[in-house]
Amino acid sequence: MKYIALYRKYRPQVFEDVVEQDTVVKILQEALKQKKIAHAYLFAGPKGTGKTSIARIFAKGLNCENGPTPHPCMKCEQCLSITNGTNLDVIEIDAASNRGIDEIRDLKEKVKYAPVSAQYKVYIIDEAHMLTMQAFNALLKTLEEPPENVVFILATTEPEKIPATILSRCERFYFKRITLKGIFGKMKEVAEKENFKIEDAAAMLIARFSTGSLRNALSLLDQAATMFDEITEENVRSLLGMPREEVLYEFLKAIIEKNAQRAIRIIRNIEESGKDSKIFVNEFLSYLQELINLKILGFDSVKEEIGEETAKLLREQAKFVSVGRLTDISWKFADLTNSMRFFPDPFFAVELTALQCMDISSLGKKYEEETHLSEREEKPKEKKLPAKEEGSESVSAPSKAPPEKAAEQVSESSKEIPTEGFEFIKAQWKNILEEVRKVNKPLHAILERVHPVELNGDVISLIAEKKFYVDILKTEENINTLRKAIETVTKRKFSVRYIGKQEEEKEKEDNEEEIKKLKENNEIKKILTLFDGNIASIKNVNEEGNKNEKS
Amino acid sequence: MSFNDIKGQKFAVSYLKKIILKKRIPPTLMFVGKSGTGRFKTALTFAKALNCKNAQADSCDRCKSCIAVENSVHPNVKVIGRNSSVGIGDVRSIVNDNLVPINEGYRVNIIDNADKSTIQAFNSMLKYLEEPPENTVNVLIVRDPFNIPETIRSRSVMVKFQPLSDKDIESYLISKGFDSDKAVLVSHLLNGSLEGWEKFSDESFIKKRKSFIEEMLLFFQGRSDISSLLEKWNALFPDLSSKEKAEKFFDYVSVLIRDILYVSALGEKDNITNFDFLGYIAAKFSVTNKSSLERIYDIIKEQKEALLTNTNPQYAVVDGILRMKEVIV
What ipTM was predicted for this assembly? Predict the structure, then answer.
């Protein structure tokens, strides 16, 4: 017996065989029944949804010896010859390879002749979107008013490429993608007829993978049946290179937990088992989609689509992640599907995207911290440089050490620690802070925001990032603690002096001046005497201008 | 070449053998995989096996028919797109030439580099791929199935070709006269495909590659300037068109970035392509800023996208380097 691909063997031959497309079938059948036949039809829809098949069935319905009928008999000569593709009056044109104006002229020439044996002459123009502009235009008049008993059926996957003038002359039918259920049912039916052993889960998997196209589904079934004696879910997965749900679960878990090593190991495994990176990403995206659906629509509505077990798995994971995070991850991976082809190793792109989802900069930081230690020590000094320029309350002479030189010396400080002068204090500052920490932790926290700027005799000048710190540090207890700490570390006695920032000082002065002015204001004088108060500070309270706080 | 000589493609070979034995040959097959993984050779062997009378579901490589296929003079086997992209004319030559195969054999149409076909060519194949004449099979050789129209994909059965393992490549190279040390290195550099292995038989190419990678690594540390980098790069592939060259450049960079990231962030030792620089990378890049690597990756992506349009390829390379430099500094 000659082998015919399953999707050709199981092409629907009567309206009843057609999977779904109920509206289209109903309207066409009704038209046949009422004998109201339009002269031009346009069938538009995604691949593998039955356009060409229905066009052929319709031709049979028209030409069957029992007159236009919604139920072609499949026994008469006409029906049989149309099925075989040998009918002289049903002309199937492959517009993709006959796309020029000459072919259309030829067609126009022949349209005039009456049908040879059937009632209607049917032109099926497949892949109509491929006709050239000139060809379409040449067809216009014929399409609008064809000779009697001529029917045109245009089938296309891309209706937007058909000129509006053509569209308006046709009765249009839009074909929908076939649902999972529809494909699943057909798979089971075909498997039974062909004596294939197929698991339900495997059929479902194929249905899901074929994205609403029955032709895809049947050719996959064909391939699976050739490869394996028994079509199991596992077999189909390996054939398609589809990862298992558990793998996707683990992968997302690794991303959520920011476990880079694990995420990469999972990707590596997929790569080694010879699966396709794009399929993996697509599957991961649809997994995320299901997870988001579950979070928003609830468990029950998702359960039907993906089966209870997967839904349970999803529910488990949904606890640990927010919708916002999921959409973030989804966007990143959706972008990836476009950019993947730019890389010689697409799996690396997947890995990087996974790392991006978990904040790549923190990766390997531990390692960095250890090795970067010496550089870190330099940092406080770098900070200190601008502080010098800001000026201070009572600095007499600016520090003379050029900053670069200082940095250089410190970077070598791990070996040669200077024993005298300002550099010595600087180098020891960390140790001093450590000493303070042992005694007084809050003080240590504040001192971290204070940096030594110069050494004048045995007075260390310290600059604080905020005036507020100086106020706290000025208390006698704190000064003593710091002094003691310096003594234990340096084995010498130093006194300390704090420097606040000039700007803040100025601000305060401004405030005081304003307060003085206010005091002179009559109304306020009254208020003050009335409440026996004093002006402490001034705050702006929107349009009312100044409002005084009393104490 | 018989099916047994095809290395590392167990799945594809067993599938092809099965469909011949069971006589269930789908009208259109799509061989999907990296170039240099044996897709074309397998297609030829498949054609031989279908037409060979001596061997069962394999080619004997000795009969008239097998030799004719080997020398591309067999009337049943037609190859298009081997050296140029497939146009509508090529497809028509197949469609119009569909005579009944001689010797009760099988007509095999091999469309190489199918993903480089023009869109018109694709559309003109549609009907033929779906319902070719009796005893005809079309083999599309494709690198990325997602680059070709859905309507074509849905009409064909996909046969996947896996990247070759380093071991397979190694033994192949040794059989071609490489010494074992070099074979180990080159097998890493080839990254799962035999494409372009001949280049590595030239000692000076290996040297040039080494100096380019060195320069690139220096560049990543901010210790090299653009002119010397470009100079080393231009010496590497003097005979490629500037567009191919630009694409290759970004491939090289992205592979290098991957290596750096693997070594520095993950402490990885396997799966490194620039195998000979493993030690150097580990020593010098242990503290690389990961987010700047990430930025470079984005730059590569953008430049490659630009290459798909009308960008001047040389400009794309220079622009890419300049932008990378900004990130590094």
Answer: 0.79
